[in-house]
Amino acid sequence: MLRAMSTLFESPALTFEIVARCSVSLCPFSLPIFQPVATQASLKGLTPEQLAQTGCNLCLNNTYHLGLKPGQEALEKIGGAHKLQGWKGNILTDSGGRSRLTISLSSSIQSFQMVSLLDLAKVTEEGVRFLSPHDGTPMLLTPEHSISLQNTIGSDIIMQLDDVIATTSPDKARMKEAMERSIRWLDRCIAAHKHPDRQNLFCIIQGGLDLEMRQVCCEEMAKRDTPGVAIESTTAPTGSPRTNPAT
Fold it and tell me: Is there a contact between 151 and 81 (Cβ–Cβ < 8 Å)?
């Protein structure tokens, strides 16, 4: 059921008007929204012009992969991912944190080893340490580096780096640690964000299936007043957590 209303929302980088709101859930977008995944700034099987003809105006790029190839320096010279892929619509990038889970899983499969994801990636307060899937080089992804990469990519919606664990994890202590660390990392992301006038930084709600943790995280994230909010939801079949963004 939709309740008629008119609310104008304005921020330095985003303006929209909510014309109706669901009485059950908050739905400021006209749903459903089709958001194809162009991981490496390339959508398989369609040109940017063909994608635009479908009515799509938002696609997803992967921060981790673009940071590796073509790399941040090349992206700066090109002028960002919009120019790299010839895309005139909007781009959403993840923080790169989810990639370390999927990359770790891929690496373990390719080497035919049954290993824990945490054996391949280590999370500390500093950031996420993991091995490059290309040559095994140790890498460190911090909140500051994640935001720096996304600033260079030039995506319209950027995600904070959060401490990612499986939503269904039974380890409540680890879940609480991840939730609290994600809040602290959001503060670091906000401080590192150079282009709030044209890029919208979304926080990510953590807490797994624990309603109290979700409530605490929501309250803390709301205090930061980011232009949008993403909600960490259930795990995908591959073991990669899905994030549902909303404004």
Answer: no
